[in-house]
Amino acid sequence: MRVLVVEDFELLRNAICQGLREAGFAVDSAADGKNALWQAKSAQYDVIILDLMLPQLDGLSVLKQLREGGCSTHVLILTAKDTTADRIKGLDSGADDYLIKPFEFAELLARVRALVRREYKAKNPILAIEDLEIDTAARSVRRGGGSIDLTPREYALLEFLALRQGKVVTRTEVWEHVYEFNDDATSNVVEVFIGHLRRKIELPGHSRLIHTRRGHGYMLGGKEQEEC
After folding, report:
1. Short-list 107, 131, 205, CA closest to 115
2. Torsion of CA 197, 198, 204, 208, to 10 degrees
3. For residue range 154-174, what is the model confidence (pLDDT) as tens digits?
4. pTM value?
5. Which domains does the chain have, with CATH numbers?
6. Under a CB-based contact definition with an 8 Å cutoff, are residues 180 and 187 in contact?
């Protein structure tokens, strides 16, 4: 899943980004409101973590412009403003959640995961596709009772496919939700990671789970058809 972190305090911004990446998220960041607004309009994010007190353009103005422009990405406000009136103002401006500084990173991570599940209407943190089980809270994967070791990028790709299980996901959608702005956008990088993932989750004696739809993209689960 792809997250945009908007925070002007560099040490905090870097710490949040590092923690999210270690948890398997693709992360972009912005240090001011104008750049944040541009990035949010230029890419598809699953969650935006937004500070309110930003240079150039404050967080509430960023949020209002995004909502007025039709952006429905879930927004988690992260701020030191802790009065009830501040929280009401933020939520009434279109925020989906509100977290007060200082905070525990574990809580931030749990709130981000909850917003991702809300985006894909998946209330249960356990995603199951046949005998494949993905625990989105523990970020662990099991199949046939055995644990499967995935890299953070492989896990992110699998989780994205699982949240869209039974639906075709295009290569462009995979790129937009799983990779960062500074990643190498070579033509076959998605295919390479799909291949890595297949070799780990498609075990001998078990059914194929990742299907390629010729000219369209990939699908996790669903009926097998002719593949390219």
Report:
1. 107
2. 130
3. 898 899 999 988 899 988 888
4. 0.80
5. 2-119 (3.40.50.2300), 126-220 (1.10.10.10)
6. no
